[in-house]
Every structure is written in structure tokens, then in C-alpha cells.
Amino acid sequence: MISSQTCPICKKELSANTTMLSPLFPFCSKRCKQVDLLRWDNEEYAVVDPISPENMTEEMAEQFEEEIQKKIDRMEEGSF
Ligand SMILES: [Zn+2]
């Protein structure tokens, strides 16, 4: 029996098909993964309220997704 893993963001138990092989691991969802990325990025976003999956709207998620993608691109460029 594998001990259940919980999402570090929302503390929800990960479903059985969210394994280490999942691109989302250790998060339960894409949104939680985004929330985690954004938490590392608080200075830039000057977030007043802590972002949680509950208060993150679809619109925000889309917007952040773009920002995160840009950031990832930049990180990849800078890593060489
Ligand atoms: Zn989660």
C-alpha cells in the first residue's frame, strides 16, 4: 500500500493517477501548480492576498498562465 500523497497547495489527497510520472506532481491540478509558481513570484506580482485555488478565477489563471510561460521561457534562456 502506497501512502497517500497530499497536494502541498490545497492539501487535497492526490488521486491515484496523479503519480510522480504526472507532469503535475506533486500538485493535484494544474491550478495548484500555478498557485505554487506564483507564490515564488510574489514580489513581482505584489500580491496582497495569498493566492489560493479557491480565490483564483478562471481569468486570473489564464493571465498567470501566460506570465508563467514567459517566465519559464526566460528561465530556459538564462540557464545556459
Ligand atoms: Zn491542489
From TrEMBL:
UniProt GO molecular function: zinc ion binding
Keyword annotations: Metal-binding, Zinc
Cited Pfam families: YacG (PF03884)
Entry's Gene Ontology BP terms: regulation of DNA-templated transcription
Protein name: DNA gyrase inhibitor YacG
Species whose genome carries this gene: hydrothermal vent metagenome
Source lineage: unclassified sequences, metagenomes, ecological metagenomes
